[in-house]
């Protein structure tokens, strides 16, 4: 049952639900605890349902445009057709499509979804995520709240067993979460004991805990097994403790704490999990180790529909998966990448952030530069036209003059940048 607003909620005496059998391990995800600069928000691409936050009259922007009302923002996340922002004070602001509750707030007033609006929460948010039709937040006390709906091949699944949730509801009570990650239609939660909990659509194996025969709503347990968050289990002799997690459109990646091994599960039809699809198995419903990715010192993974971009601890980028439209950044004549391939155009840059959309990719350097490549049809690359880009291209524009980009996020047909001015101020 969701916590009523204004009601003080007591925390469980012990977290993890292990009944004292498992030693308590404190895991702090570097993806959340890193220092974040407060800045302004720039958007570009398609804005037909308000996802650019620029008002009802702006349907498209081919270059980065300033969202004027947003200041002191420390995190941005582009969903399928909506945008979520986190302020330095822990407030969450949303705008865009609200058909299935993805904004987490009332938008009955005409045009209100086109303007940034605050989501009412019971605490201070420290991380945000967004999928196609859902959003989630992690509070500073380790609680997770979400709203909207997951979808599968049939249609809307709901967010919980109560159906679509149009305002925030608590997702994993009794556990302390240190990081969350959203795929298109699934949510992954990393606890302070290094465990993974998942919920949402499991048709491609992205939940990592349900066999293929039970991974759809027509199975014996129906939606219960999918929408109720449950732990991803491992054999007793393994019991990996995770320190980081990332979710792609239809897959999940998790980094083991002790040796940095990367566990993966979900769709691998174009080798996006880091190893070759042999034609016999294109989906993995249980976690497996991706040896090619484990050999890299991975600090972030982003996944589009059929491709993956990997950032290592030296700021180098690798791509793998499907080549079409230039999404790999390896040139127009490159083949599909069956294993991680260094992106040569950025080998002399130190990258600090990455993002993927369906068929697009982005990188941010330590100098505040933003690069884009891939499908140009929606204007999502910020190049000023709709041509496909086969190698990383520096994003320019008036709004980027004297500003440093510090973060990028890519949605279905739009892109969001977090930027500061050259002195690091948020104006």
Label this structure with key terms:
Methylamine Dehydrogenase, Chain H, mainly beta, 4-stranded antiparallel beta sheet, 3 helices, 427 residues, disordered N terminus
What does this structure look like?
The protein has 3 helices and 30 strands. By secondary structure, the protein is mainly β. It has one domain: Methylamine Dehydrogenase, Chain H. Strand 22 and strand 23 (317-321) form a beta hairpin. Residues 1-23 have low confidence and may be disordered.
Report the major sheet.
4 strands, antiparallel
Unreliable residue stretches:
1-23
CATH class membership: Mainly Beta
Shape, per Cα inertia axes: globular
Under CATH, the homologous superfamily reads Regulator of chromosome condensation 1/beta-lactamase-inhibitor protein II
Total number of strands: 30
For the record, give the distance between the C-alpha atoms at the N and C termini, rounded to a whole number.
Answer: 40 Å
Strand neighbour order, sheet with most strands = 2-1-30-29
Q: Strand fraction band?
A: 35-45%
**Helical stretch tally:** 3
Domains counted in the coordinates: how many? 1
What Rg, in angstroms, do the CA atoms define? 20 Å
Secondary-structure content class: mainly beta
Q: What is the second-level CATH architecture?
A: 7 Propeller
Question: CATH topology, what is it called?
Answer: Methylamine Dehydrogenase, Chain H
Mean pLDDT: 92
Summarize the amount of helix as a percent range. Answer: under 10%
Organism: Gryllus longicercus
Protein name: RCC1-like domain-containing protein
Domain RCC1-like: 41-417
Keywords: Guanine-nucleotide releasing factor, Repeat
